[in-house]
Amino acid sequence: MGSLFPKLPDEIGWEILLRVEFNSHNNLRSVCKSWKAVLKCSHFYQDRKRLKLSEQRICMIQDTGPRNGCPYDYRVRVFDPIQNIWKTLSPVPKSIGNGKGIRVNAHFYSVKQKLVFVGGWDPYTLAATKMVCLYDFSSCKWRQGTDMPRWRDQFASAADAEGRVIYVAGGCNKFRAPLRSAAVYKVDEDKWDFLPDMPTAMDGCQGAFVKGKFFVRDMYGARIQCFHPHTETWKTMADRRNTGRIVSAFGNMYCFSSLGLIEYNCSESKWNIVGSYPTDRGRFLVNWATVFGHNIILSTRKDYSSSFVHMLVSPSRTQGAMKLIEIEIPSGFQGFLSTAATLDV
């Protein structure tokens, strides 16, 4: 690799490039091979985060189909809430996943500078798949990962706080029987390891990673099973029957329940109401939620043809009715947004 800047030490050149905003990184790649090599380096983004120079993007999955005979055509929308800029990533190459693109209802996470898609349904047959694919923002390329070790549908999943692994557990098999099995995907190694089975099989469950533990909550909100990675043991806890979308945020687990926004107290194994829904919005259905800074970006819906995206003030500052700020979606990006993840770059 050549010098980054003429007559400047590379250490100074590195510091200069660290401070260039992410929206200009594509332009940097085209300047010279040295700069392109820097932007491919994982340490570059680690230094941006360490120096608090990293930026957050909300990555959302949206169906733009039908296209070329396929009823679904999922694309990744990338939203910069600070500058209100919307972009679309390049589609999944036909060489990955038999050319069928992102799977329907794929589980979706950001791990370091990568977007990871796990499982989901075949867009033609709607049969569950084991497929894993990734998009790397440092190289701007897609690649196929190692398939899940077993077939499962309607399972729970969550990424750890350090951005190293993704946990999966429960769900059902091809005969719709609920599963106890669990596994962990090591993203950098592209490798799956089996975990101990859960004490009780769970189907149609949700996952969250909170305080160093992987939580699996059933669809009825009656039971939580918690996995401790350090001891590799499971613990079962009773739960109030409050169904709704859960999200891991600010070191806690929240649920958008019928009662309002509730927060889980891990030490007492109980939920506490921290906010109520705005009374002027009618039925409040949260499709997904993800963290942005000290706030939460969430999507609400009335049906499966459209979505409304809002910014929710930090739950710790919520008193009474939650304050929601609606985010305007530009033409060309409107439609149903199925899921989302927050990316640090």
Automatic annotation (TrEMBL):
InterPro entries documented for this protein: F-box-like_dom_sf, F-box_dom, Kelch-typ_b-propeller, Kelch_1, KMD1-4
Coiled coil: none
Database matches in SUPFAM superfamilies: F-box domain (SSF81383), Kelch motif (SSF117281)
Gene3D superfamilies per record: Kelch-type beta propeller (2.120.10.80)
Domain F-box: 2-48
One Pfam family matching this protein: Kelch_1
Entry's Gene Ontology cellular component terms: cytosol
GO biological process: negative regulation of cytokinin-activated signaling pathway; regulation of phenylpropanoid metabolic process
Protein name: F-box domain-containing protein
